[in-house]
Amino acid sequence: MILVVEFKNISPKFTDVFFEIVEKSSNIIITGHEFFDDDSLASALSVYEIISQKYQGKNTRILFSGEPDSRYKDFKHFNHVEFVSDIADFVDNAELLIMLDGNKFSRFSHKPEILGKIKKTICIDHHASQSDTFSLSLMVHQCSSCVEIVYRSFFTDYLIDKSLADIFLLGILGDTGNFTYLKPSQSDILLIVKKLIDISQEEIQGFLSKYQSISKKVFETVKELIKNNEYVSTPGWPDFQYSYIKRSFIKANKLQTSEIVEASYLYSAQYIRKIENYSWGFVFTPNQNGDVNISCRSLPGSVNVRILMEKMGIGGGHDRASGGTFAKKDKPLEVDSCIKQTLDWLRSNPSHKISNIIL
Q1: Same domain as 274, residue 146
Q2: Starting at the edge strand that comes first in sequence, how are the strands of the sheet with 230-232 ordered?
Q3: Are 241 and 272 in contact (CB under 8 A)?
Q4: 290 with 332: CB under 8 angstroms?
Q5: How far is CA 283 from each of CA 42, 55, 105, 167, rounded to the nearest angstrom?
Q6: Average pLDDT of 299-321?
Q7: Rounded distance, CA 122 to CA 135, Å?
Q8: Which of 257, 176, 181 is nearest to 221 (CA)?
Q9: What is the tens place of the pLDDT at every residue in 102-158?
Q10: Beta strands of 247-313 (E only): which ranges?
Q11: Which DSSP helix (H) or strand (E) runs through 218?
């Protein structure tokens, strides 16, 4: 029976226990959270690198719940990633599940109870939300990204070539918003980035341009979000904004989930918390499962959106960037009801009654 071992700081002991569990496992699955982002993908690719090089005879797979995105095809090991509707349907023979950039089984699958029954589970994450229980976990909330934790745990003495340096840059740039989200306590990551850029020999703008092109459909979806933007003043909360996409728009434009996620991310990054006097806000987007996702952003001195999602009981994430899911019951949810639910909750729960929610 595997004991539950939890680490809160990067240490050689965690690395030793990690490899001890990997060495005793034959069928290994590596995954990042559903609707992958740059950090979760980079974390999975880099963990696959270290395991496949150290244990070449093992059956190691990378599985993601979600759709593929060909923009990442040039990154090393991306051709090994298997995109499936739900990883829970593909873990029957798994002896070890390694989960990256998320600390709850429900972040990886709509059937979290199946993942929880796998004999051995390892989780590496940097979110501050309360986590599920795993065989082995490393939760370092101070780190800028999950892939930074992976780098510091496994790669400080590893011979890193350009292809691997590019993977680390992908994750670090993605989760720091090209360094705009960095806190003073996280500035050491810049020393790692210097090393990676020296190896990669890439200008950051040129590097980003390789995988950050925007399709016309995604751009039209961003325009729809701009059109649907609303400004709200609610007693007990700083003024905020929100926007949404309706199922009818998704159907009419034949949008894939990956396109919706990308448009939501672009809109949130460019417009949420940047409008004068509106320091935080949401984006509501339906998904193909019938649920509705909410993505939240805020500025320092405003709302801690991680705590907000946790208090509402629908999600979690970072203090300044978080998300959640309104789960359907009998039929697919529409965004209107989820917007109303959120606004009603805010009216009934003024911020001064919630500890540390304004930071």
Answers
A1: no
A2: 230-232, 240-244, 280-286, 292-298, 321-326, 315-317
A3: yes
A4: yes
A5: 25, 43, 23, 28
A6: 94
A7: 6
A8: 257
A9: 999 999 998 999 999 999 999 999 998 889 999 999 999 999 999 999 999 999 999
A10: 280-286, 292-298
A11: helix 216-227
Give the pair of three-digit tokens for residue 228.
């649907």
Residues 32 and 172 in one domain: yes
At residue 232, φ and ψ (nearest 5 deg) are -135, 135
Query: Domain boundary residue among 152, 182, 209?
Result: 209
Find the domain containing 123 and state its range.
5-209
> For a pLDDT cut of 70, what percent of the chain falls above it?
99
Query: Is there a single domain that holds both residue 50 and residue 194?
Result: yes
C-beta atoms surrounding 246 within 10 Å: 16
Judge contact between 283 and 225, C-beta under 8 A: yes
By three-state DSSP, how is residue 356 classified? coil
The enclosing H or E element of 88 equals none
Residue 41 pLDDT exceeds 60: yes
Of 247, 320, 322, the closest CA to residue 289 belongs to 247
**Token reading at 41:** 């993908």
CA torsion, ordered 98, 314, 283, 112, to nearest 10 deg: 30
64: in domain: yes
pTM of the model: 0.90
Residues 201 and 226 placed together within one structural domain of the fold: no
Domain identity same for 196 and 336: no
204, 226: one domain: no
Buried b (16+ CB within 10 A) or exposed e, 67-90: bebebbeebbbbeebeeeebbbeb
